[in-house]
Amino acid sequence: MMRRINILSLVALFAIASNFVARAESPRLVINIVVSSMRASDIDRYGDNFIEGGFNHLIDNGTRFTDAHHSYLLNSTPTGLATLSTGALPSVHGIVGDMWWNYVDSSKVTLIEDRKQRPVEFSTGSGNHSAHRLIAPTLGDMLLADDNQSRQYTIAIDALSSIVLNGKAGVALWAERNQTHWTTSSAYLNEMPRWIKDYNAHDTNNFYTLSRWTPIHEPTTYHNDEVAVVEDLTGKQTRLLSDINLRLAKDAYGRMCYTPAGNTMILKFARSLLTLEKLGKDSHTDILNLCFDTSRYIAESYGSESIEYEDMLYRLDKDLADFFEFVYSHVGSREDVIITLSSDHGTSPSFNPVGGAAKERFNVRQMEVIVNAFLGARYGSDSYILGYRNNALYLNHQLILNKRLSLNDIREEVAVFMLQLRGVASALSATALRNTSFAEGRSRLMQRSFYATRSGDVLIELMPGWMEEDNNLRSTSISGYNYSTHVPMIIAGGNIPHSIIESETDVTVLAPTLARLIGIDSPWASTAKAVREIIE
Q1: Cross-sheet strand order for the sheet of 385-389
Q2: At what angle do helices 261-276 and 294-302 cross, to 10 degrees?
Q3: Are 244 and 309 in contact (CB under 8 A)?
Q4: Cβ distance 294 to 209 under 8 Å?
Q5: Checking phi first, is residue 423 left (phi over 0); if not, alpha (psi -120 to 50) or beta?
Q6: SS3 for 183-238, per residue?
Q7: What is the mean pLDDT of residues 252-266?
Q8: For residue 203, what are the contacts with CB-CB under 8 A and spacing of at least 6?
Q9: Phi, psi of 509 (to 5 degrees)
Q10: Whole-number average pLDDT of the chain
Q11: Is residue 521 over pLDDT 80?
Q12: CA-CA-CA-CA torsion sign (499, 503, 343, 31)
């Protein structure tokens, strides 16, 4: 008996020692940077104006994936962030958009809304949010389940971005819409830490706002040759390059969303968080996620080829250089820090509705009326359409059931009919997506975006370059074309080699690769393996 106890004791000691060694080799801090709507080509297009310590620091010291893609149709912000954080495709992680319809009672379902949660300080009445509708665990969820002394924080302007990238464990922080104070919900904290209360009370974010936006470099060095053409209050459509317009920055929140100040504010707040929460200061790996929503707002509103978007990248590049220097000083060793760069999706070429071609715009409301009229002519006038969202048409299941009609037949009829509409490149019914396995082509991209209980009845893909009609948008992401799927991806720090991987890579590899570097299990729903060139 005594001998058996000694053997078991040795086994236990060996397990403890092995775990200690693994932890000692793990990074102290992992920083995941997501620049929303950034295309992979932006790194090369604007690279000659990047400084040494920003984006180029990651490029020159890490592994860059030059052909990284989101390999599905539905490239929206919540979908892309869920893919990055869980390592899974939408067909697995179930995040098909920011809202969808419940087929049982025809009600709208909002992704992060949670009436069981309450707002905390500085929420200005909003904040009934949580990640309870996230099906798959994120990288941070896995880390905190493995080690309760590790910590995770996520910072973004939008609550949705912060929550989806963060997951259920750790703390998601976002900016409230009144004074841009940092806030969260009771799903994460019952009370804000004193230092965040003080940070907000001093209106610290307002110190970094722009009252005037001028190019950071000489105008002649810019690759984009004009400011987005937008009518001001006088009807004038031209502006001087020396003074970029601030038409959308009408209040504090607008200045955060629609100017580079939003990026600066996040990085300044991140510095305080790192310092006061002492992240990266012990052997237990901590994660800091930073999602820059400002880049998406600027790309959508001014165009992806506008001076506004280009200048925003240059200012972010400078801010990142300062931030990286601070991080290394804070942690004390570059080898103990891993930094990743990625994007939730790219964005379409700039589209200016003032002079754009009508054929490039898809009128969603008109489509709903036409399809409803088509069904009314066949089955009697009624309201067959719940709405259109996430590249999909949602049908009124309750009505169809009450009329004793075949839902599958109607789905197929609508899919065939929608192919006749201008701008529609392909359409597939939910029935086909559930019952058929597509191995290649555009149908495969659709199927990877499809989640049966949340996706619509008929999924469509618009033709290349097309976008849904919206006079406030000049660029958009929701498509399966290269301008939306091809994104930057870089992993730098630790012992990761400086290299370039040119082979096509799915962005789902990011989460499992980081899990291996940290020394934990991959997120449960991840659909890819860790990158061998990095972990070996």
Answers
A1: 385-389, 392-395, 458-462, 424-429
A2: 170
A3: no
A4: no
A5: left
A6: ECECCCCCCCCHHHHHHHHCCHHHHHCCCCECCCCCHHHCCCCCCCCCCCCCCCCC
A7: 94
A8: 179
A9: -75, -20
A10: 90
A11: yes
A12: negative
| Rounded Cα gap, residues 152 and 187, in angstroms | 14
Q: Give 36-90 pLDDT, tens digit per residue.
A: 999 999 999 999 999 999 999 999 999 999 999 999 999 999 999 999 999 999 9
* SS percent in the chain: helix, strand, coil, step 5: 40, 15, 45
Measured from the Cβ of residue 203, the count of other Cβ atoms closer than 10 Å reads 13
Integer Cα distance of 66 and 47 in angstroms: 14
Q: What are the residues whose beta carbons fall under 8 Å from the beta carbon of 245, sequence distance 6 or more?
A: 213, 227, 228, 230, 232, 239, 308
Six-digit token pair at 471? 């006079």
Closest CA to 312 of 126, 27, 42, 498: 42
- Look at residues 148, 19, 61 and name the one whose alpha carbon lies nearest to residue 341: 61
Helix (H) or strand (E) run with residue 361 in it:
strand 361-362
93 by DSSP, 3-state: which?
helix
342 - beta bridge partners?
Answer: 34
Beta-sheet pairing, 152-156 with 108-110: unpaired
Strands (E), 382-473: 385-389, 392-395, 424-429, 458-462, 467-468
User: Nearest Cα to 295, choosing from 346, 247, 235?
Assistant: 346
Phi, psi of 403 (to 5 degrees): -80, 0
- Helix 194-201 × helix 261-276 angle, to 10°: 150
CA distance 66 to 262: 27
Query: Residue 101 corresponds to which tokens in the numbers above?
Result: 């319809």
Q: Which two tokens stand for residue 238?
A: 């031209």
Handedness of CA 87, 88, 90, 93 (dihedral sign): negative
CA 109, CA 106: separation in Å to the nearest integer? 9
User: How many Å apart are CA 137 and CA 526, to the nearest integer?
Assistant: 9
The type of residue at 447 is: Q
Please measure the distance between the N-terminal and C-terminal CA atoms of the chain and give it in whole angstroms: 42
Using CA of residue 109, residue 248, residue 365, residue 446, what is the dihedral sign?
negative
Please say whether the beta carbons of 173 and 237 come within 8 A. Answer: no
Torsion sign (Cα): 317, 511, 134, 183: negative
pLDDT of 174:
96
Residue for token pair 């090369």: 44
Give the pLDDT confidence score for residue 123 in this predicted structure. Answer: 66
User: In sequence order, what DSSP letters do the residues of 297-344 get, joined into one string?
Assistant: HHHHHH-TTSHHHHHHHHHHHHHHHHHHHHHHHHHS-GGGEEEEEE-S
CA dihedral for 197, 191, 294, 313, sign (positive or negative): positive
